[in-house]
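Worked example (supplementary).
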Amino acid sequence: MNEKEVEILIVEDNPDDAELAIRALKKSHLANNVIHLIDGAEAIDFLLGLGKYEGRDINNIPKVILLDLKMPKVNGLEVLMRIKSESHTKSIPVVILTSSAEDPDIKRSYELGANSYIVKPVEFNNFAKIISDLGMYWLVINKI
Amino acid sequence: MKEKESPIQRKLINVIMISCGAVTLLTCIAFFAYEFITFRQTTLRQLSTLGEIISANSTAAIAFNDPADANEVLSALKAEKQIEAACLYDKSGVLFSKYPPDLPDTAFPSTPENVGYRFEKSNVIGFQPVIQANQRLGTLYIRSNIQALYDRFEFYSLIVLLIIAGAFIITYILSKGLQQRVSKPILALVETAKIISSQQDYSVRAKKVSDDELGLLTDAFNQMLTRIEKQTVDLSESEERLRAVLDSSITAVIVMDVHGVIIDWNERAEKMFGWKRHEALNRDLADTIIPHNLREAHRSGLKHFLATGRGSVFNRLIEIVALHRNGSEFSIELAVSRLKTNDVVTFCGFITDITERKRAEEEIKLFSQKLEQMVADRTKELELVNKELESFSYSVSHDLRAPLRAIHGYVNIFAEEYANKFDDEAKRLTNIIMSNTQKMGRLIDDLLAFSQLGRKELVKTQTSMTQMVKSICEEQKRSETDRSIEFTIHELPFAFVDTVTIRQVWVNLISNAVKYTRHKPHATIEIGANEEGDYQVYYVRDNGAGFDMLYYDKLFGVFQRLHSQKEFEGTGVGLAIVQRIVLRHGGKVWAEAEPNVGATFYFSLQQYVE
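After joint prediction of all chains, the assembly is encoded as:
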């Protein structure tokens, strides 16, 4: 398979948020292998090699997953549950993206095995900084 | 029909008869004694006279010693029937002559005895010396029978008896008539008294018969009657009035004696319990108006009171169940008082039928239950609506952030990546867009925080307010290094609060103080606490911009601001959050301020008791 190693998987239904995040990562030169999926169902298909991703090398797992909680169809919590229940994906660090620190789902995310969460700030500069710090942390510093 | 004599009449008659009898008897005895003595003296004198005459006549016979002549002289005694015997003795004392001549010598004393006359046995005897020229010639013996005396006495006795009997009869007749003068007024009084006592009629008067003591007695009796009549009238009037008062009372009044027997019962009681007054009187109270299951308690209570003088029912209102004549039971309110009149203890019960009140109370209770249910239902609904509103505002602010983020992000990229193609005006405009998106972001954040306060569970712990305030002030100092701010922190008491939210209160108040003193060259911020009753009042005082108390009403409203954005930036949510948190802790928030002098913000919390 000529597939590139996936480093960062962004699961985010809002294309603007996704683009801004990818830009931020690019700025930090971390966006070489970023994959963006727009909903939870697709993320599960991607990770488990189902649906349109049938035949994909499912051992090519991302170094880190940035997961939005509020998504149509299959939401972030369901995706998280699925990731943590599959043996080959459960060790992937998952960072929850949320619009509010008061989100009651954050607590639930931790219970399900999320490694961290970030509140998406309105200010782009902050957002970009957090995203790139995070990418750096999980990719560079926290080498598994 | 002749009336039987009354005891007093009999007594009067007896008194008169006895005194009259005694007088008559004494008179008769005196008369009798006088007669007796006089008669004896007369008898003696007559006999001595006779003796002297005989002795004078017989001197010759003796002197001449002639017995025949002597016999003749003595025979003259035949005329005196009572002379039984007589004899003459000669000088030597020898019987010389005797009378009657046929009587034997033994019937005479053998020799003459002492001279003189005397009574001897049933006779009177006498020895008379026969004297002539001072020479005693002999002695005369004469004996008289006193049967005549006895006959006379018998006759006298008969007369005395007749007199006494006659006197008695006359006295009886007279006393019968005379006693009436005394007894009549007394009997009249007695008759009047009898009428009064039997008919209770004090209007009759005794008739005055005389002006003597009995008349006075009658007058006094009549005066007494007048007084009694007046008192009786007064008493009956007052009794009637009392009765009227009792009967007009809307409270049932029942009086009971120490044996538990009903002795008074007013009209209201008649209506309330179904027993007429005359039926209720003298009945046992317990059997009349107390339900079966309470009778024993009533009786033992009465017994306890009589034994100890103490009772738990007196002089207070008691709600209890009573029994109607028809067997139905109903609620009453009862007050019992103890009455003591002339050392007789009775119990007076004042009773109100509270069936209606009970029913009303029951209704009110039911109604209030219903109301409570309604309130609970409404509260539940409100809570539901509130929750919906909260989740709505949460999702609104949540969803608003995404496009905002995009606007800000893209404008930022725009500004960065096309910076070299922008002229100054384009740069200024993009900056305005960015600063506005930032502001909107803060607004949304605050709104979100505010909306979440309501559903957040308060976790109260013992909290050191001093430590909390100190750490907040340190943080503030660090972010305002270029300013001169003097913090004065007094010792603050511990509080039992939700640390997270109360910290938010302090942060908002202190950061406000820092913010509004910005234009002062030297800012002073004082933080302290006072005790006010059950509450602890904390305050934050600054010498900043203050505000006009005219707009005080708007101070704690959401999105309400008293300063322009240009003067002091802000969203107008901070104080609203403060108020909401303190209210949820059961406290109050208030403030005092003067423009350009400063402001003091207070909040109170319940005292923490360890």
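Two points are worth noting when inspecting this output. The mean pLDDT of chain B is 86. Residues 7-161 of chain B form a domain with the Beta-Lactamase fold (CATH 3.30.450.20).
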